[in-house]
Amino acid sequence: MTCPFAITRRRPGSKNWPDQELDHQLRLVCPITVLPISEPDRNHVPTGKEKRNEHVGRTVDFIIGVDTHKHTHSAAVVRAATGAEIEHDTQSADQAGYEALVEMADRHSRLRAWAIEGTGGYGAGLARHLIELGEVVIELDRPNRPARRHGAKSDPLDAVRAAREALARNYLAQPRSRGQRAALSVLLTVRAMAVQSAGDAQRQLQSLIVSAPEHLRQRFAGQTTHAIVTTASNLEIDPSWDRESRVIAGALRSLAQRSRHLENEAAEHERGILAIVRDWRPDLLEQLGIGPIVAATVLCAWSHPGRCRNEAAFASLSGTSPIPASSGLTNRHRLNRSGDRQLNRVLHVIVLTRLRTDPRTRAYAERRRSEGKSNREISRCLKRYVARQLFRQLESAT
Prior knowledge:
This protein is of the alpha/beta class. Helices cover 48% and strands 9% of the residues.
């Protein structure tokens, strides 16, 4: 669009219009170029690679950014074409607040999307409510805080930043599914806490034995950790002992019983995880090196078909995508330390298991080692292959 303040004259003898071949000496150049705003094509249906690379601003009129907190949610309606804030509101983080935010959004176009921070945390309730209503929900990680202008910070401003962050991204994340995936996530979390607490109790038990009186230490001489827990849990306190011995013996018995209880709790959670995995994706358990805990961790990260747009995205999520580390005549890639570290850990467990038990994996490792690859580089390659195999299996199964 030509600036209305630009004064132009036709060059003598020129047959062109004034906006063509302007005489630079006879025109006043406007310092601002005004570009036309193109409206999104509502009849355009993207396909293939175009659909994956499409900006959300081409398909919606408004983006509602939401900054989530424990007690309140702040939402801001932003026009997709310009990024301008239209309206904002802060409501309580409950059912009434969710409905009030939807009412605010209904005052604008129905062609809209919600960009929510923390759909698996403080924003889980709002995301669940919107998905049930058929709304388009985009999962956002923490927006770029250093981009704040003059240090400005407020919940409505963070909501606007969330909406504009969604407009600026080429690829948008979907919230993880609920149902069986959420149940697996909870069981994995409580089992991990039980296993860690049981280990802490066992370490405290062994540390206490070191400084215990000699007649108590002799009871645990030469025993393994499991045997120490068994002996300490059945320890009887003699009333004739001195007070220090009685207190230490009581503490040993308490720690041992706590450790045994936590181990039983972890085993119960593992049985629940196995039942869900067998009901949801039993084909994963047929793969070498994959047990219920590994399968559950993979399923929680993957969530549902289509969440990872392709195999490379799943490799980036798992932290197995190669990172170039070449310099000069050296051409190599280094380990990726980003991504979901729990998913990366279980892929490492699969690789270690196959290196011990799978002849094909061992032959591959020997061949790569003869080519000059280090063990870390071989492990990175194997984890990348395992990530590719798992992604194809998860996406292809119906």
